[in-house]
């Protein structure tokens, strides 16, 4: 993991960074390859875990905020769209991966839309 941390924080070029961000998603999600490669553009989901009286609805980690983060995806084998709720420790890794993948693939999406 130390070697991966060194690699993932200093990619050689954009193509390598795309590969590294997909690996980041696999680490955070534990998903199958098609589930990671086919996540929708608006995949990032956040929800407040408190009710109207500020009581916590969903139990979260000790140092967590009152926001729970997840990634919307389409499970393989024809299941309904789902959200993978992330552990607090996975949020920074997954958020960086999603943000960078959206940025790095923008030109390809523009070409595909054309």
Strand and helix map with partners:
Elements: H1 2-8, H2 14-29, H3 33-37, E1 44-48, E2 67-73, E3 82-85, H4 91-104, H5 106-113
Antiparallel strand pairs: 1-2, 2-3
Helix pairs in contact: 2-4
Number of helices: 5
Q: Kindly state the percentage of residues in helix.
A: 40-55%
How do the SSEs run, as a string of H and E? HHHEEEHH
- Spatial arrangement of strands, main beta sheet: 1-2-3
Give the terminus-to-terminus CA distance. Answer: 40 Å
Domain unit count: 1
Sheet-strand content, in percent, reads 5-15%
Main sheet record: 3 strands, antiparallel
Question: Can you characterise this structure?
Answer:
This protein is of the alpha+beta class and 114 residues long. The chain has one domain (2-113). The protein has 5 helices and 3 strands. The protein has helices at residues 2-8, 14-29, 33-37, 91-104, 106-113, and strands at residues 44-48, 67-73, 82-85. Strands 1-2-3 form a 3-stranded antiparallel sheet, covered by helices on one side. Helix 2 runs antiparallel to helix 4 (91-104). It is globular, with a radius of gyration of 16 Å. The relative contact order is 0.18. The mean pLDDT is 83.
